[in-house]
Amino acid sequence: MSEQITITVQTKKAGEEMHLLHTVGRTVLETLRESGIELPSLCSGMGTCGRCMVRFIGYAPLPSQTERGRIEPDRLREGYRLSCMAKPVKNCVIQLLFKSEEKIKVLTESTVGSMEGMGREEDGDYYGGLKQGSSVIAVDIGTTTIAMRLLETVSGRVCDTYTCLNPQRSYGTDVVERIRAGSDGKAQQLQELVREAMRKGMNQFFQSAVNNKLCKSKRMAIACNTTMGHLLMGYSTDTLGKSPFTPVNIALTMFDFEGVPAALLPGISAFVGGDIVAGLYACDLHKAQKTWIFLDLGTNAEMAIGNGGRILCTAAAAGPAFEGKGEGNTTGPERIEAISHLLKEGIIDETGLLQEPYFESGIEVNDICVTQKDIRDIQMAKAAVRAGIHFLEEKFAVSMPEYRPIEKVYLAGGFGFYMDKEAAVRVGLIPPELEDKLEAAGNTSLAGAEKAARKMCMDIKEMRELDDIIGNCEVFNLAAQEDFDKVYIEYMNFVRFYK
Ligand code: FES
């Protein structure tokens, strides 16, 4: 039998320790994962991202060649190791170092999607035979976070909220890494992780339902991107990771989750998923008689334009710029604000170059350190978004003669919610003429799931609005557009083009 040792894990909370049984020959990362500790890992344990770093206190295993190449000698002597490489052979103590996740706020608020007090009372019953006290559950499974709400069906009152980081993060922070992990034989673990997180939420809601005198939840609606949906349902992710990026199933899917009839909301493509459909649904954009833009900016930037029911969508990889994981342990909105300030002060030039003496070390602004890499990440992300808006407007104007100027821009998700509008315009993420049209709409994916869950209770046919959205939606491949490279490169600079 393999020899077993104990790893004592010290977390960031002072005085908190865990003792994990570890089999000699395995990596520390494997043991941490199996114990439910979410360590970020961008490279799936290839030893290239450095995100899984831990520090050994006292005894530390000999560093591998890869670790010698990645970690400075001083830090190696101080016990720093990559947990995906480190294989201790005797009892040891490690400190977890990852900090940026502590800054991730799970957004549940939304400014849209309210449908308070639906239905009508007839002898105490409402549409669909609902009585007061009936409840539904809405779930938003994001790549980074999970948010769930328990609602009283008829009034829409939020009775309880459950949030957590998506535990699949230990297999990679973006969808590309999750797809790879799913295809590398980890699909079942990934499915179980997300389902376990949902079960925890349901257990919490079970007690809240008792406290709020609610009946067992009648329905659950789940909104998520296509990859999260595939992992939840146990579909193969193989085809999501390679051209032509064909999903296994993105139709509205009814299934049973822990005894509750659940609906996984439909998506549009591999890159424009049910979270975006839920967002459009929450904002009622399939009915809007005005021209609008909808932006959901994360590691994948989803963008849509529409008017009078017609919807045009696209998506672009935006990298880590909008997320809470840049160098210097900062959040996306913080970095946008800091970079905007540095541009104003002339410390960053138009090409994005940080002036000396800050080029090597970075510069501190409002307690956060901005590095040259942070600036490059923002440049690439904003170029992708601006190119997306450029082609959305161009294509929509060509195909819709009654196209009018944009009247409203909905910013979905946490980045848009916490982002400073003026700073976003100054760095060139948002065209200046759209600044006063911006609305931070919050977690529209959760809002859409709430609306869908409540409508499901009335009549399943009410879900047909989701089909209307999908039926009227056209998706185009941004990177395949003629002139894409030219437009993208021009938007990389901190100057305004085309507008
Ligand atoms: S270095 Fe990337 S997971 Fe360890």
From TrEMBL:
Residues 3-100 form the 2Fe-2S ferredoxin-type domain. PROSITE patterns: 2FE2S_FER_2. InterPro entries: 2Fe-2S_ferredoxin-like_sf, 2Fe-2S_ferredoxin-type, Beta-grasp_dom_sf, Corrinoid_activation_enz, Raco-like_middle, Raco-like_middle_sf, RACo_C. GO terms for molecular function: iron-sulfur cluster binding. Pfam families: Fer2 (PF00111), RACo_C_ter (PF14574), Raco_middle (PF17651). This is Uncharacterized 2Fe-2S/4Fe-4S cluster protein (DUF4445 family).
